[in-house]
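Standup, Tuesday
Yesterday: got the pipeline producing structure tokens again.
Today: sanity-check two examples.
Blockers: none.

Example 1:
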Amino acid sequence: MSAEDAEDRGRPPRRPSAKLTVVVGDARFSEDKAFLVQSCDYFGALFRSGMKECRQDEVHLQGLGARGFLAALTASRGEFPDLDGLDDLVEAVECAAFLQAAPLARRLVDLVDSDNCLLMYRAAAAFGLDAVYRAAALFIRNVYADLEAEAKESLTPELIAYVESLTPSAFVAVGAHASCGADRPPLAASRTVCRLDESANVWKVLTELPPEASTSMAGVAVLDNRLYVVGGVHGPHKRATASSFCYSVDTDAWSRIPGLERPRRGLGLVGADGRLYAIGGECDRTATASVEAYDVEAASWAAAASLPRPAAAAACAKAAGRIFACLWKPTETTEIYEYVSRADEWRPVATLIRRRSYGHFLVGHRDDLYVVRNGPADDFLRCLVDCYNLRSGQWSSLPGHFANSKGALFTAAVRGDSLLTLSQSETQEFAVADRNWKPRRRMKGFPRSGSLWTFLLRLPDPRPAP
């Protein structure tokens, strides 16, 4: 260590100046220091280190690519970096790992698809980017039947072993049931959560709902491979309940979690970044704009920014790591809003106007939001689908229409590049590509009447461990 370095280490670190020039290869970037510290742990550690470099106005990053660094900056601003080429993805993975740039890592997780999952998996393993490594491995496991031969040609035995150690995401469903209450026993035959055994094409019971759990007009969502049932109705008068439950696949057990501050029914429920968001619904049979956020680690609910206006049964979804909700202005306007957690506010995203039709269900796949709406007037047996691309800000319509066989398109789960829909008569898988849905295969329907909830869970492998 030089005398100058020793002297520098003895001084308290200075506060970062307003701007820092970052030199990456032949490119120079002038950025606000506070922004860099907030976006990348690398810069946070640098400016806390007390070393000479933390007082310089120019920093050189050796061995990184300018395109990867630009992607990190773009993702940190909440925008979409241009990562269309495979080389761009590898450079971005390296940069995200070196800079410990969480926003870029989250964006890369969202970009894993059938065409790049093997490359992303290898790159994340090489550079030690854990979030992308696990996301790519889970993606490969879910589509392993299609990719096994290619995977065994391009992956090391160690990488293959990790993929094969994972369990694929199972398609799971539950019907709509009010809580039973203490005065009558649960109907165990119908109050069950079931999984589809796709190899045998048969539905099997996974677990039974707790007697006090309601899936009728409730919020149902999966977060970190746990199933949550929040609110809903109970009793013959269908009163709103605050009761909330969590199912752990690891312990095969239900537990009660704190109830909502305001009991509600007809709410939307979305999980993201360790929180559940209970969106809108009805309190005392009146639509509400209230939103509550449940912090899983703290096990507590807190108020979040309210919707722009009251809404019950609002269609909600997550896409590109962001939360969206559809609000109606019957009978022909659907407005999409995004919840921005860092600002705790709802921001308008897009508006869809279709004559005598509005969105009833929302599906997020990568950078696309699919609004599933009824046909003209009250033709609910004919579903039409419009797609809004978050990057381009453009609407497009899927060709033709989809038969809404008793609610099939009002519930769906995205697995890899597929969309699974469900009705009493059949389970249908669509391949999602180029903003279009193409029928891929049909399987057995769910033998329950009424509304359905569908979701994905990674279930423990029933085979005994070696």
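Example 2:
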Amino acid sequence: MYDLKCLLVGLSLILFLGNVSALCIVHKNLLATKNIYLTNNNGIFDIQHSDIVANGQSIYLLCNGGVEPTKFQCQSDNNFDPPLNTVMCSAPFEPSVVNVPDTSCPSPFLTYAVGYHVSGRFMELYRNCFDAQHLALQHSIYKVYRHENTAPRPNSPWNSDGISGGFDSAYEGKATQACLQTNLGAKQPQCRFDRGHMTPASAFMFTELKRTTFRYLNAIPQYAGVNRGYWRTIEGWVNSLVMGRNYDVLKVCTGALGVHRLKHKNSNKFISIFLLDNDKIPVPEWMYKIVSHLSGDKWVILTYNDFNEPSQQALDQMLCQPVNCHPNLHPNKRGVGYTVCCEPYDFITRNVPHLTGVC
């Protein structure tokens, strides 16, 4: 089985490298425009995720008015005909959020898919399993594709998609501190929480695709130091696997486990932390990322959502059989966020059995 897995990865790599001269690259300046590109296979449109287009393949432009009629074909000289910069979108095509059936999302939670409705077809970018009662993201599922370049991360407003009007104020620093001081009997200056993406903006190469990730359906409260520390390193490592041509496309499941607890100043009791109404928008104790390839390669990374290392009790309860990490991933060498790599099948079976066979 191991030999077969290596053969599959090797063949994929050989096929790609063997045709490296027969590729067109969407110029990095175009990645940051309002343009969204589509593929068309036998009349069926789908999203062009990568900035790499194979020789002989064509892509189309999706603007706010719909699909533009011009077909841009990758020629043998590695250029598009006509050139991509000859047609530009003046306004972006707006994404949709659709409730979809999904057996990997346990009842009573619901799955919300984010994507685009085009010509009667919904083209999915990613999907999230979400607890609407407690405003708690359970897990997110997306794919990351081989690419050469990526647009800068946009500074986009956050969208609540009509689910709740309390997200913005709950994440606001003063409101968070007031909530924590009431519940814990003292200020918590270290508790600065980011809106932590579960499907990260970095999973997509084009600005307009990145913007779709700025949704509260796709966020958890992450300690700012953790989100901008080792968690960011993990997201960069995932992208490095496809940018380094080791893999063509990876499936990623990202989720939250448990509710973080802090000690009350007076009683010394541990209090579960929520950003809203004492039972909504929970601050997770752990975040995990399951990364897999069709060859069978699979990794699980588990990160503690706190500046400090977890207590021995938290370590005993984390339900992870530690293993060596990928050679290019070095937990806790720099940045904030205690991180450990886990044996994938043991972790999934014990913590997220509903994702068995999915991630």
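Quick observation on example 2: The two ends are 19 Å apart (CA to CA). Residues 2-18 form the longest helix (17 residues).
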